[in-house]
Amino acid sequence: MQKLEKKGDDFDRTLPTYERATLRERILHIGFGAFARAFLTTILDETLDGTGEPENRDWGMVAVRLNSGVEDLDALERDDCRHWVLAADDESTEVRRVDAVVATCHPLRDGLAALLGRFTRPELAIVSLTITEKGYCTRDGRLDPGNAGIVRDLATPQAPGTAIGVIVEGLRLRRAAGLAGLTVLSCDNLPENGHVCRAAVLDFARARDEGLAAWIEANVSFPCTMVDRIVPALDADGRDMLARAGIAADAGIVCEPFRQWVVEDYFAAGRPDFSLAGVQFVSDVRPFEEMKLRMLNGSHTFLACLGQLAGLSTIAECVGDPLLRAAARGLMLEEQAPTLSLPDEHDLDAYADALLARFSNSRLKHRTSQIATDTSQKLPQRLLAPIRRHLAAGTPWPRLALGVAGWLAFCRGKDEAGNALALNDPLAGRITEIVAGNTDGPAYVRAMLGLEAVFPADLAANADFVSLVEAAYLELRREGVRATLARLADAPRSPA
Ligand code: CS2
């Protein structure tokens, strides 16, 4: 690794120093968007820089997109697949050039065979994924047979469009070529992401061919991972920062300096020594992932929905508001932390304070509208799983109820000043029907709680759940975000 002189704005530029010519296509990354650029490739790059072992020096990555994003991959190719990662907070700016990507592939540009053919290369060892929650096409942890993409892919399995269909067809070709298995590495914000991915892949494979499913079961590993780095979608502010650093907008991404990757160490065909880049290997990722999904992502969803209603456009603005900040801290420590199963020495107060400091980062414009996208896919693990714990224990959960109420109010498509809010969600069609068919009030809440893909039947039938969410919703609509938060802040702590 080589540090260069400070240039222009006050920052260090780091260039990797490993030999690029030794890289081969050992990792195929599906879903090469902003997060993958700033997270996975940076970690891989630092690993390659840190490794002294020649046999560890060939871990190159192929960047794959399946749907949109041809232009992004074209831009990457123009720069010889190199890109820049600018990590900034209120104290520091660091810029790193990342060289670990060796090729790009998009089925719409290169043809499906160019993608599937890569599964039959013996050196391929890891297929990593950042395809977002909805990319797994699951429901209750199993493949959703009613998902439109899955229905299509099962009808034409050799011409798949979903990531799950691509993986299964790729593995079928790999098996037919007499090659060994590999690792499918989920890097999405789902509880037990490896297990969910495995279930989706195996369900899909079984629907095609039992023998293929058995081969996958025996030869392919699906470690669970917890990934963490805040990487907003690149917008005009981000482009400006890149420009001030002398980087072309399509050659870089902006993110926070912090990052954490906790990974279960089950790699069927080997892996780079990621610990050189600070990655933690564990035998069970669940405690870490619950902590992150509930305390970080749960607060994100809470702030995003309430912030959207209150007219706040970024997370930094939200935590700049004393009421929202106090509510987020209360949510983390009083309602999420007690539902976690971490070893006692884990200091969750310090974790919560560190999260609030990260959320306050004014250099990132992390949009509440971006985080509110696809909330139907996020609510179960971020807010509903901890609510179930409270229902079982009889402990209070007023902020979690307000978070759910906030989403229900957000879905009605208007903020408190009457401005339109965009609903980007795979369930948008159904939600819009419910909004149109129910006047605002208890009937609307009950109809939304009937969305079984979000609220499983047992939860929707739980009288405490329904009445507390309904009460939170009615107060939120009557009083507005700030008055509701103020009352919460004043309320004495009481048992349920
Ligand atoms: C966010 C996450 O968009 C969202 O839903 O909560 O992308 C979050 O920024 C990352 O998980 C941070 O690691």
Structural descriptors:
single chain, about 500 residues, alpha/beta, Rossmann fold, N-(1-d-carboxylethyl)-l-norvaline Dehydrogenase, domain 2, five-stranded parallel beta sheet, 22 helices, binds D-mannonic acid
Task: Characterise this structure.
By secondary structure, the protein is α/β, with parallel strands linked by helices. The protein is built from 22 helices and 15 strands. It has a 5-stranded mixed beta sheet, sandwiched between helices. The model has no long low-confidence stretch (mean pLDDT 95). Strand 1 (2-4) and strand 2 (12-15) form a beta hairpin. The chain folds into 2 domains: 2-282, NAD(P)-binding Rossmann-like Domain (Rossmann fold, 3-Layer(aba) Sandwich); 286-490, Orthogonal Bundle (N-(1-d-carboxylethyl)-l-norvaline Dehydrogenase, domain 2), CATH 1.10.1040.10. The chain binds D-mannonic acid (CS2).
